[in-house]
Amino acid sequence: MSLTKITTKEFDQMVQAAAVVLNNNTDFINSLNVFPVPDGDTGTNMSLSLSSGESYVDKSTDDTVGGKASALAKGLLMGARGNSGVIMSQIFRGFAKDVEGKKDLDAKEFADAIIAGAKTAYNSVMKPTEGTILTVVRLAAKAGESKADDTDDIIKVMDAILNASKKALKETPDLLPVLKQVGVVDSGGQGLVFVFQAFDDVLNGRKIEDKGEHQPNSEKMNEMIDVEHHKSAQGKLNPEDIVYGYCTQIMVRIGKGKQVTQKFDYDTFYNYLAKLGDSLLVINDDEVVRVHVHTEHPGKVLSWGQQFGDLATVKVDNMRLQQESIMESDEKAQQNDKRAENEKEDHKKPRYLAIIAVVAGAGLEKLFRSLGVTNIISGGQTMNPSTQDIVDAVNKSNAKKAIVLPNNKNIFLAAEQAQGIVNIPMEVVHTKTIPQGLTAMFSFDPDSSFEKNQKQMDASLNTVKSGQVTTAVRDTKINGMDIKKGSYMGIIDGNIEVLGNSLDDAAVKMIKEMLDDDSENVTIIFGKNAKASDAKRVSDAALATDDELEVETHEGDQPVYPLIISVE
């Protein structure tokens, strides 16, 4: 099999396949996070970024590959999340610029476009680091360029690009010592290899078996499920009144598995499930069938599905427990709605300067607003906002100028991309952590100019030490520490510095490491997975270390990190 031209047909299929493969491998890519903390989000960011790009391609009516590539680049730009997503967007930005105006691509043009993508990606990063996605795309592009000198077969060129990317990925630990120390390859590089693998599969005419492209339309199924759930009017329902308490969802690979006893027939399959509960949805194609049903017997649903094929996915939720949580949070939700309405009215008021902070947690949001932040983008750890999210927040701020606080270094590139898109002057204060964001706001002077405030806020960042306490999600060895899954870790300014037997133990050890002769203030922010009593014990321990310290505690409601601690 050979191929000498990539047309819009192949290009569309390549992008669609890559989006599917990234989506199906999100958890695996996330697991390659160097630190064993529960915020590994490279896979999530790359998948969401490419999903945005694929959406733009799907909506494009252009009949040239150049036009389709431009749509992909635009979608990736606006949907880019995290550093990995932004770098991927730059790869395809360079690719798109190189193929601008071209109806089809031959082997040489395709290879040249990958080279252009690699160069653009490198140029987009101030200090390129080898052993990352940049290395993978550079070496893959070089291999493709070399192969294109010998053949006009695009498949052979793509094969060379894929093989070189795999080889480069395998070698990333040799270029970046921290990867070798932890025993993983670069997560962003792995994501790009999955993209190239999908491209290669499409061009070779291979079906991407078990990778999701044959699944019934997930978006349609999810919309149908949402409709069924809305019918329940759950906000008003007493948990005891729920007749069928388990929301059960399965996906069955038809005809595969060791327990298959029946040939799939839609009516037979559906009618049995209809007797087990309500809110039943069943959609299928030739290879898989997806089921959603509310039942008291989730085990029977699983057993029935296995008679027709093995279970690719299983999800069972106890709706009575969910409803209890809904009712408990109902009052809080009403308060949030009222606050949101007040904020909506406030946003209509013209202002000279908007200060926009990326924050996750109602308590942190309240804290930042009390210091003068005018607009909040909900996000942070595991929820990096896209370039589009930042652009929208700035453009809707009703201000003449804007300052953005990312509060996470993985949001820097997306924020910087937004600078070139927004309708008003915008500056990024490069806050890496929540404590840095708070410190920046303490240095904000409403009577100073836009430019002076930006400089003052940037200059203040080195005056604070940032600490976070969380638990390890896997066993690993790093920085000479033997870390076990479930261990409490104290992370100081991005480095795992201490281990503890408990939340208190890790927090107190971490504070002692952070304190020096000039330390005066300690701020403890407790999140969703901690209590005020936890913060109080840590506060008492800090004061016992130095009774001249000023220690204050706040409820942040933040996810991922039970305690965020700053020392100034």
Automatic annotation (TrEMBL):
It comes from the Bacteria. Residues 329-346 have a biased composition (Basic and acidic residues). Residues 9-201 form the DhaL domain. Pfam families: Dak2, FakA-like_C, FakA-like_M. One of its GO terms (molecular function) is glycerone kinase activity. InterPro entries: DegV_domain_contain, DhaL_dom, DhaL_dom_sf, FakA-like_C, FakA-like_M, YloV-like. GO terms for biological process: glycerol metabolic process. Residues 325-346 are annotated as: Disordered. PANTHER family: DEGV DOMAIN-CONTAINING PROTEIN DR_1986-RELATED, PHOSPHATASE PROTEIN. This is DAK2 domain-containing protein.
